[in-house]
Hints:
The chain is of the alpha/beta class.
Amino acid sequence: MLILTHPAFLDHDTGPGHPESPSRLQAVLQAIQAFQSVHPVEIIDAPRASREALLRIHLASYLEELEQRFPEQGRAWLDADTKISPGSREAAWRAAGAVQCATEQLLAGKDRRAFCAVRPPGHHAEPDRAMGFCLFNNVAVGAAAALAAGLERVSIVDFDVHHGNGTARMFRNEPRVQYGSFFEHPFYPGRELEPGENDVFVPLSAGTDGEQYRRIFSEQVEPALAAFQPELIFISAGFDAHAGDPLAHLALEDNDYAWLTESIVAAANASARGRIVSVLEGGYNPANLRSTTLAHLQALIL
Ligand SMILES: [Zn+2]
């Protein structure tokens, strides 16, 4: 198992009171430290994404527009939720680069699992816009890199509590990518999107608990993964469906994330030679994030 992260992710400074804060990543890094004391995994510095990798999913005009908007000092808003600072440019390029690099490493046979401890998150970013705390769609950069390397079936399992509108839009007409998204509904981002032919969209009511979630996952996602037979699985690992999360209203606990991860590991072992790239998305209670991430990592390495 590989872990990719970078100090630049702490310099993406969203300012006081913003939920997508550096303290989230600090909690995740504490989990990695605790994990590493038991499992001596390799931690590598996330490189910057290549421009070519970003252009597989984002428009060149968006890259140029974004370049102009990074402030030299202070902070700027990209939309009502998405705030950036001078350090955000480096963070965004390395967050996408972490997933590109992890994908390349796994396809080269270096490892079977990777966890990308990155921010800003990515799954709301669309081809032509930043959205919902996200600048580049990190997981989509990885999936597109896998297709460019010749894979024919890639699945993205997104258990972040929000629907990944960006990922959905990027791959809706791409039959080689299966996108499974579990999300609270009605809720942000509130965009009605039709799933592509292999996709599984699962809206969940506020209050859904771990038992209900597990049942729905077993009934809908496990058979879809078994039918699609992905050669590589990505996880959009948002931990904001946790009962303690301040932004959403589902009621998962740490052991539910362990269960979910084990289920995805079983699917990867069945068709993908065990290959999983897990990418941090949301999760806004730093006090929970440490234990939840640890539960995820402990299941991911099995
Ligand atoms: Zn989220």
